[in-house]
What we know:
Distance between the termini: 33 Å
Radius of gyration: 21 Å
CATH superfamily of the largest domain: Ribokinase
Number of domains: 2
Strand order of the largest sheet: 7-6-8-9-10-11-12-13-14
Amino acid sequence: MPQRFHCALINPPVHHSANHRAKGSLILFEVGQFLFVSLWAAKDEIYFGRRFQLETGGTTLKTGMNTKLKTYDLLQKVRRESPVVHHLTNWVTIYDCAQIVKTLGASPVMAHAPEEVADMTRIASALVLNIGTLTVDFVEAMKTAAASANQKGIPVILDVCGAGATELRDRKVFELLDQVKINIIKGNVSEIARVSGANIRTKGVDATEVGTDLETLAQKLAVRRQATVVITGKVDIVAGDQGIYRVKNGDALMTRVVGTGCMAASIIGAFASVDSDYRQAAACALACYGIAAELAARQSRGPASFKAALFDCLYNLDQPTVERMQRIEA
C-alpha cells in the first residue's frame, strides 16, 4: 500500500491530518509561516530541510521558499557592536568600502603596511581581502594579515576580484586559498568559476558568461574549500555545506557604479563579524545592501545620484522596510 511521502520546509517532522490526503496528487498548503508539500507515493517517508527535490516516477520537482532570516536583527547587532573590519583592499574603491562599513555603523580600518597588518588584524572582528589592485608584495601582506586572523579566529573574506583575467592574478588567488584559511570566498560568476578550476577568462573585473549550473558550482567549491561561497549577480547565490540561499534583492543600477562588488564584500565582512553562521551572515548582508539599492533607484536619475542615495538608504534602513522587502530563498 502506498505510504505518505512528506517534504517539509522546516526541520521537525510535521504530520498532515486526514483531510489533506489526496492519493496520486501533489498538495501545497501553508501552516503558519511554513509551506508544506504532501505527496502520496510508494516510497518511505522522508523529511528534508529548507530546500528539497522530489523524484517520483522519473519526474523531478524543484522548489524554494522565501526564508525570513533575522536580517534586521543582524543589522542592528552591527550597529550596536560597531565591529572593526580591517581591509587590505582595492585602491580604486577603498574610500567607498570604508564609507559603506561606516554607514552600517561598523568601524573600517584600511591598513596595508606589511609591518603592521598582523597587529591591526588582532584588534579587528573581521578581515576583508580584495585583489583588485594586487601586487606581489601586497598579497604577501594579505597572507600575513590572514594568518593573524586565523590565529585569532575571526572571519576572513576574500574578494577574488578579476580572477581569470591574468596568470599572476590566478596564481596569487590560489596561493591565498591554499596557504591561509579563507572563510568566505566572494566574486562574480566568472571569477568564482575560475577559482573553482574552470578554464575561463574574465573581462578585466567584469563577469563573463559561464555555461554551467551556478548553484552546483558554488556548492562544490564551498565543500571543497570548506568555506562559504558567494556569487554576486542578478540573483546572489550564497552556498555552504548546509545548503544555498538565493538573495533576490538589488537593482540594475548597481552594475553602473564602480565598486558595488567591492562594497558587497565589505558589508559581508561587517555582518560576518557578528554572526558565526557565515552563510546566513552573507545572505543577510546582501539582502540589506540590495534593499538599499532598490530604494535608492527609486529616487535616482543616474549612477551618480544612485550612489549617493545608496549610502543614505542603507543608513536609514528600518525593521518594517527590511522585513517587507527582503527576498531570500532557501
